[in-house]
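Summary for the steering committee. The consortium agreed at its last meeting that each partner would contribute one worked example illustrating the joint modelling workflow. Our contribution is presented below. We chose a case with several input lines so that the handling of multiple components could be demonstrated. No manual editing was applied between input and output; the record is shown as generated.
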Amino acid sequence: MDRLWPVVRREYLERVRSRAFLIGTVAAPLLLAGILLLPAMMMKGQHGGRPLRVAVLDETGSLCDPVAEGLSRQRLDGMPRFAVEKAEGGNAADEAARLKRDVLSGRLDGYLHLPPGALELSAAEYFGRNVSNVADLRLMDQAVEEVMVAHRLAEQGLDPARVKRLTRHLDLKPIRIGASGGEREDRGASAVLSIMLLMMLYTTVIVWGQVVMTSVIEEKTSRVVEVMVSSISSGCLFAGKLLGVGAAGLTQFLLWAGTLAVIGLSAAGASGSLGGVRLPEASPLVLAALVVYFLLGYFFYAALFAGIGSAVNTPQEAQTLVFPVFAPLVVGTLCFPLVLQSPDGTLSTVLSLLPPLTPLLMFLRITVLTPPWWQIGLSVLLTGLAIAAVVWLAARVHRVGILMYGKRPTFPEILHWVRHA
Amino acid sequence: MAGANDSSKQAYNQAPARAERGTLGDTAIRIQGVTKSYAGHVAVRDLTLTVPRGSIFGLLGPNGAGKTTTLRMVMDILGPDAGTIEILGRRADRAALDRVGYMPEERGLYPRMVLEEQLVFLAEIKGTPRAEARRRLPAWLERMGLAAWSRRKVIELSKGMQQKAQLVATLLHEPEVLILDEPMSGLDPLGADLVRGVLLEQRGQGKTVVLSSHQMETVERLCDSIGLINRGEKLLEGAIGEVKSRYAKNTVVLSYDGDGSFLAGLPGVLSVSHFGRHVEVRMAEGADAQALLQAAAARLHLSRFEVMEPSLHDIFVAAVAS
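What follows is the complete predicted structure of the assembly.
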């Protein structure tokens, strides 16, 4: 045991001091925050933008004025969204060609074409250089539709304002009841957070697993492994590497979880929003689960990666062997819609108790609702047993593999090592 | 222990060591009936070797003879299929191996690790306390000319410096037995002298050194005793002087003016090798060198005629060939 500690410390310090660790630790939360906050902020930023200059080219003869008026009424954050002009009468084709030139020259952002049968077909066309401004186009769609509906209602002798009052949309507010009983309006933010954290787990398990693998390969190619195993047992080397790299990963995770917690707290202080952007809630349970399931996932997969690393000579050779290791991780990640849809369903429960999938799926279930404690406990227990089995297996491959050079072993050969190590 | 290699050793003034070795006189490493085979071929077959404590022992053999496999078994990196290995009087276990320093044939250090941290670490996993390793390190770095590089990463060091660093890694935990696989390969003459000096000094402190080599000259100048193996089997073993005395003095060196081509046809002459300034004549066992001298003197102007002790090189070639 007194030899294990220097190995763990060496592995830990070498990782933590590396530039990759620094970049990963700082960049990942920024990236995460960026993905969570940026779209909302960009939307806000866009609201202050200048109104869209559009022309209305009407061939129905009756819609031009109400549509122009309807568009002018559309507001975003109190600012008119559209600066409307009406196309002059005359030949529609000539007029369209003129408007097109205006759009191309930049005098207009686009024009709305109401064809002769627009009212009957409920059809219109918008021509513009940019048609990716989905939010603006939705506003335009609503405005034109409203005018058309009002027109039809009036034709039937009904009062459009009254009908609108009677057919108001329902506003269904999803309110999430937290584990502690707290209530919080949630329009999809927690699902986004769940997926983000899931991706974070998936990525970090792979990244740290690969770190272990390349570090085993590096020990082989630099031949330092022979010096190592002349001093300590290969089991000690293997355990020290897993623990040391794992400790580095855990350090990174704790830094991240701390950052998340701080953001969460400050967000709570600002009544759950940051600059008007709602932040999803990361509860202490979720943060703890993040760390626990990272560790479970790390040890399970890193042991496998280490076993592969000790069987090959170069990272390139490892590529074909890592596929079966990646497979459950990818499958687990792809299962997220299923688990989010029915986190307590039989399938979700069973999948989340399968050790290779537990780190991802049980964690995901915990983020969306708290599964029964016995299931959480069972998942930790089963994964722990699986880790013991995988570590035993990988350590045997490691023991033989680290001194094998030359041709990459086939799978049956590796099994032979396991039996005879 | 008197032998042709005496003169080279006197330069290092190793007299006290020899006395000490004489009084101890026990065994550092005992390899008994060891066999190791890999899929399909036997690397080492029923090998028995004894390394006397406080001596320098040369493990010789052509490439692929099983030297590295043998040393790896001593270090418990490989387990023998049969046979036993004892180190310092006990079955090789971790505690015994902590007292052994090992330099593998394929040198290896962590390329991206700072030199001094690495050397301290490698001593630490041999059981030397961190502070103690730190205290010992500067003197070694100074001696090896690595002091200015102590904070550099290993990958920044030249090949020769890495070699010297590897030797420091082998010595820093102050092992009682040193096992060095091809310690001189890849060193320039100055580096080789440095290593030779260190090894003789280690022996002077009563340490045992085992080195493998196929450079006969190195072994002849440095080792007290040798073991020669080929195809995994021992061919001969013993103190150098004793091994040499087993082989007859059957090599004659001549320098002359004139046409010496008739020498090869003389009775008792096995072969004639031409070198720049002299020829070496190998004689059949029991052949009379005096007859050769007379025949040569009759037809050539001789400037040198010397009956040589067989070199290790000759013994090596003869033993492997037979």
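Confidence is low (pLDDT under 50) at residues 270-278 of chain A. Chain A touches chain B at residues 2-3, 6-7, 10, 14, 218-219, 222-233, 403 (CB under 8 Å).
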